[in-house]
Amino acid sequence: MERMKKIWLLFAFLFLQVQNASALTIEITEGAEGALPVAVVPFGWSGPGKPLSQDVARIIADDLTRSGRFKTMPVADMLARPQSGDEVEFRDWKVLGMENLVVGQVRPNGPGGYMVRFQLFDVFKGEQLSGYNIPTTERDLRATAHQIADIIYEKLTGQRGAFATRIAYVTSIHKTGGESQVALKVADADGYSPQTIVTSKEPLMSPAWSPDGRRLAYVSFEKGQPSIYVQEVFTGRRQKVSSYKGINGAPAWSPDGRKLALTLSKDGGPDIYVLNLNRKTLTRLTTHYGIDTEPAWSPDGRYIIFTSDRGGKPQIYRVPSMGGKVKRMTYEGSYNARASYSPDGESITLVTRQGRDFRIGVLDLESGGLQVLSEGRLDESPSFAPNGGMVIYATKINGKGELAAVSVDGRVRQRLALQEGDVREPVWSPYTRKNRRNP
Fold first, then answer.
1. How far are the Cα atoms of 90, 130, 380 from residue 127, in angstroms, in the given order?
2. Beta bridge partners of 248
3. pLDDT tens, residue by residue, 96-130
4. Domain 34-157 classified CATH 3.90.226.10?
5. Rounded to an integer, what distance in angstroms lies between the CA atom of residue 228 and that of residue 210?
6. Tens digits of per-residue pLDDT, 156-170?
7. What pLDDT shows up at residue 411?
8. 343, HSE (Cβ side, Cα atoms, 13 Å)
9. Which sequence spans correspond to the domains of the chain?
10. pTM for the whole thing?
11. Whether domain 2-28+166-428 has CATH 2.120.10.30
12. Which of 82, 98, 205, 352 lies 20 to 30 A from 365 at CA?
């Protein structure tokens, strides 16, 4: 009886972490030293009538700025505003200390369409580094700007960009009378274009992206009992995939998208299971009197890591995804939980206790070295960006649930502030077919 009380107290604590908002404001709280100077000149408009509803150059500049790796020039400081390479006087930009320059134009391209052209230059060499003509529409202008920012980021850093990806998160607005409106939302990585996936008066938690970025798995208490649903992001169609007696929690997709690892207590205490979505079959991976929860797959699908208190305190363990011997992964500190793999499988991000505070860390799996990245009192729910360069997580600021992000080297920090409500449990989407590297 005492053990079951402990289990439900744990889940009750997790439920209290579920909260909401409507729009995000991104603030760079700490950028990398030596950020690369770059000028993104306002794009020209060659069509008739009023300018476009979206400022493509501004979106690109904002993306590069919030990465923390670039210092973009204010438009007011520009001596000229060229729209193509043949209009560029490189000496003007050298005088201003710019190392790279982005220019571009937008013109009509058929009914309801546009053609966006951009060019990226090395100012000191006077050479073009990249440039494309990208067809788009009014609706997709922001996505096109993010795509251009990704191309520029990769060209100048050697690392794939993640501006054209999305984030999912759980929000909650507390209404008069003590009632809460909880929602699962999806937004662009910069917080724009939020889309509500599902709303409820009961807790929603543990969102997880499918590998193709088309579906979300999550836990819902909408009928008083925790159940796991899989929902298509674009159509809204959903299916209840797990509703066993007791706990149904922490869904995690396999890399091939055919299975979910999850936490079930149907056979006693919480253990890790794998659900084959096509065959509707369950495979039990752990059998222990401790609490086993929060599974996450390795990128190659061979292993599942999870949180367990089987050693007395929450630590990270690993089990083969086909079943086998459990191995402990973390030893430093008295509390390590909520782990997930980096895209390259070489490290894991987790919540680690530092004194009285709960911080976000990254553990190098080869060396065993743990680097603490965040500085909050109650930081949780870390999730790698699909390029492995940043980790997004939930934190508390002045008692309010907000999102933050930090680079894996700890040098760049962002705060994603909400205009309304609280937000928890962020998870970064994978790359999809739309996140193509080149047009």
1. 10, 9, 45
2. 264
3. 999 999 999 999 998 889 999 999 999 999 999 99
4. no
5. 14
6. 999 999 999 999 999
7. 84
8. 17
9. 2-28+166-428, 34-157
10. 0.89
11. yes
12. 205
Instruction: Determine the residue type at 208.
Output: A
Per the document, the length of the chain is: 439
